[in-house]
User: Fold this.
Amino acid sequence: MSADTDLLVVGGGLMGSATAWAASRRGLSVTLAEQFEPDHNRGSSHGSARIIRRTYDDPTYTPMTGRAFELWRELELDADTGLLRLLGGLDFGDRHYLDAIAAELDGAGVAHEILGAREAEEHWPGLRFEGRVIHHPQAGTVDAAGAVRALHTTAANRGALLLFALSVRKLSVVSDGVLAEFADGSTLTASQVVVAAGAWLSGLLCDRVQLPRLTVTEQQVFHFPRLDPSAPPWPSVVHEFGDGIYHLQGGRDGGPGDDRKIGTHYGGRAATADRRSGAVDPAARAAMADYVRRWMPGCEATPRGEATCPYTSTPTEDFLLDRVGPIVVCSPCSGHGAKFTPLIGELAVDLVTGANTLPERFRLASHLSVGA
Ligand SMILES: Cc1cc2nc3c(=O)[nH]c(=O)nc-3n(C[C@H](O)[C@H](O)[C@H](O)COP(=O)(O)OP(=O)(O)OC[C@H]3O[C@@H](n4cnc5c(N)ncnc54)[C@H](O)[C@@H]3O)c2cc1C
Assistant:
């Protein structure tokens, strides 16, 4: 007996949605199951702003950013909508990191320039810098929630079935693929399944697949208004400082007007998928206001918006992607996955079809060997 669908995708965040888009473009029959309603904000993919950039200090990721940009453009054309804002990117702070990303940009032929701190302050009044500053134009922001919607629409236009408010309770390997049991008691068979369940992934798969440690943290982000909203928008910024500061054009999330979304890459609070406070820590807010006073005098030092969001991280911060029988594990967060979204969809579907395109370090065995 044939399965109900070629591919079941569990999770309708950026990565599951990109997988559904990529699979539908290759002519597979796809069913995507998402436990919450469309546009929910309980996973990692909500909100209107994530940084996109070419700067990585690592030869695996820099070329991937280039391919991801090509696929973003394909998605924008397919969905007939704009998702990227190319405002440029600035990296500064730790010298070793800067040397390494400059070498990677050179190697990949990515246009960039290196400025002194004072020079950068003249270019972008309202921001303060230290040391050297790497500027590259192929960077900016992507609208995460807009991307999820675009991926859903384009996948559905090619026949993908999107099921919302339907949680997958259990996955069992059966003779011709996978049997999914849903929370409402219904079932579905699929030849293969891609599990892109974000912070919920371990809970769903730990009985089936030996996983590396996936740490869930609750990150806090703040929106600080710019004092001069009529000034040209600033590039996206990564400052290797303290817990790793990043800030970017805030999009819709901070309400009407112009603001910078600011967060730290490290230092999130320990959490689980379902146990998160959702509340912002006053000490974190105060620390961020101090940062703004010192490094971003072009912003008010009182945030007008704030939010929390879960990171799901591997120990190395490398993405986790691999296949075990008919089950594809897809966990590309570690706080830096959004920029790769359409590429992750391609890589996940390559795993489904058996194409060998995956960097070895993303595989389960590589993750499990770390520290072994
Ligand atoms: C604060 C913050 C800032 C970030 N900034 C950047 C950035 O600037 N640049 C960048 O590149 N990346 C960034 N990221 C990372 C990026 O947002 C993530 O890589 C990405 O959102 C992960 O998407 P996902 O689909 O894996 O997870 P999620 O978005 O969490 O999606 C998983 C989905 O699976 C669903 N699900 C779970 N279990 C089940 C089940 N049993 N049945 C059905 N559905 C289920 C969930 O409801 C959820 O919708 C940031 C992340 C955060 C949190």
